Every structure is written in C-alpha cells, then in structure tokens.
Amino acid sequence: MPTSDTITTIDQLQELFGSVGEASLRKEANFIPAVYRRWIEASPFVVLATSGPEGLDASPRGDPAGFVVVENERSLLLPERRGNNRIDSLRNILTDSRVGLLFFIPGVGETLRVNGRATISTDRALLDRLAVEGKPPQCVIRIAVEAAFFQCARAMQRSGLWSNTTRPAGVPSAGEMLQALTSGGIDGEQYDQALPARQSTSLY
Fold first, then answer.
1. Within the chain, what is the greatest distance between any pair of CA atoms?
2. 87-100 burial, b if ≥16 CB within 10 A, otherwise e?
C-alpha cells in the first residue's frame, strides 16, 4: 500500500526534481546524428534492454568497437552471437519490439542511449557482413531508431567505474556463484579453472 511519502503522480515527481534544463531537452534526436554515430562506432559494449510477457531483461553485448553498425541515421544493426542460449532478449522482442540500448566506451564518463523498435533477421548478406573471424552471428537485431541522446557522466563519476581495473576483493567468481546457487551441485573451483580456456575458444 502506498504511504504518504510514496510518489504516485507525475506532478509530485516534477515538484521533487524541478524543471528539465535546456541542454537535456535539446540533446535528444529521433535519429542518429553524425556526432552520435561517431560515439556508436567507438563503443565496444552495449546493454540491451527488452520487455516481454515473462518480465524485463537487460543483457550485455560486446565486440570490437563499432560492432553495432549504423546502417543509416534511423537504423542500427546489432549482431547476436553465441551465448548461453537462453535467448531472453530475442524472446521478448518477438512479443514486444520496444528496446533500449546503453552504449559504453571504456574510460569515458558519458554514455549514449538509444530507444527504438527491433526485428530479428537471418538475412545471409547481413550475417556475412557482421562476421568476425569468419564466423557470422546467429542472427541480427535491426533497431528502428525512435530516440537517441547522451547521458552525462555523473553516474560514472560517483561510482568510480573506470578508476579500478582490478577485480575488487570479495566479488564472487562465476564458479562461486554457480556453486552457491546449485547448493554445491557445480564445483565452483573446477568451473573457474576451466572457464578461461572455454571462453577463449567459444567467443565466436
């Protein structure tokens, strides 16, 4: 149940945060301007957000910088490479085409956000165009751009995201997490020992 300190209306939100600055409004476009294209082509990492009947999904995508192709100012191409085969994002797209992309560039504080509508393609020409090391993606997500704008660097500055290049103490490894989640059914130490070799031979 909402309480007296629960925000429930847009007016309450507006009163809490105040008006939007001019720059925050003017930085948004309904296409990919040339300056945003430069950003996308320099990015090696993006988070893809989707929504479907079973809930929300936000998952990482990464490749050498420029792997998300600006097909034209209103269309992006995102290769879908091998992974864990859960295909949560792709399942969602089939029922709700709305997607959000958040582009990162290592060492840079700003991020770039793109919202749009997605379709999934297995067009052979597209697959061949986006091949890496001679291996094409399994499919290509084509995003029809509806909005694009950059996000300021405050979140990165607050978090110090790019200031630490080593794994912080106490952060569990993939093996530790799997061992805990399976009540010991998966040996975490063995999993971690085998993981680097498995990853190096299965990137593409």
1. 60
2. bbbbebbeeebebb
pLDDT digits (tens, 9 = 90+) for 119-162: 999 999 999 999 999 999 999 999 999 999 988 888 888 888 88
CA dihedral 37, 52, 25, 68 (to 10 degrees): -10
CATH class belonging to 22-160: mainly beta
Residue intervals in the chain for CATH 2.30.110.10:
22-160
Q: b or e along 146-161 (b: 16 or more beta carbons within 10 Å of the residue's beta carbon)?
A: eebeebeeeebeeeee
CB contact at 8 A, 99 and 93: yes
For residue 150, the one-letter residue type is F
Tokens linked to 8: 């429930």
